[in-house]
């Protein structure tokens, strides 16, 4: 199947996803479950990864900017900008594509090969709307929370590593506060909303069209993670050009 066929099937699937729900109360219940499954269960990994990445960025900056002409607070400033502009939105979403995206693709793919989706259609249920819309809404809703957590704990990780003696905590804090641009937080959240939609919808697409046996579910999960990651990186370049340049 070529690219245009994939795009056409994806667009057709999304038209079914964003049609009017048959039962709003059912959508609400499914939405709450998806927020808990995709968002709240991802807070732990978000915090752990952000702390370690913030610590690593701080150490790398100290080791690679040993120059008497550069003020010490540059380390804190660079750590902050790296986290706000790229890691807490783009890199975090690439990591979550592996967790959330594969989960969505395998869940829907399993329903496809066990003919549960066919059963829903026989009962007159709009299967794409019932299965996919809550997942997209849930992930898009919770991703700004995960981004904010990532920013905070990434900066905290850098602050904690400063106590090892590689940098003065006061100098690190000065760098964090120096020339802060609040729009960078907004920019990061806007990007993450697009990325969350891409990950959840592309993963749903590959899961929904997973025909065959259990092996096909594994292939659908792999394709979902790989292709959603590529599209996220493509849109990262586009959105950066639109929002910052």
Describe the structure.
The structure is a single chain. It contains 9 helices and no strands. With 245 residues, it is mainly alpha-helical. The protein starts with a helix and ends with a helix.
Give a concise summary:
Helices cover 84% and strands 0% of the residues. It is an all-alpha fold.
Write the layout of secondary structure elements.
Elements: H1 3-17, H2 24-39, H3 43-64, H4 74-113, H5 116-122, H6 127-166, H7 169-177, H8 183-208, H9 214-243
Helix pairs in contact: 1-6, 2-6, 3-4, 3-6, 4-6, 4-7, 4-8, 4-9, 6-7, 6-8, 8-9
Relative strand content = under 5%
Q: Oligomerization state of this entry?
A: single chain
Main pleated-sheet profile: none
Content-based structural category: mainly alpha
Rg of Cα set: 21 Å
* Shape field: elongated
List keywords for this structure.
single chain; about 240 residues; mainly alpha; 9 helices; about 85% helix; about 0% strand
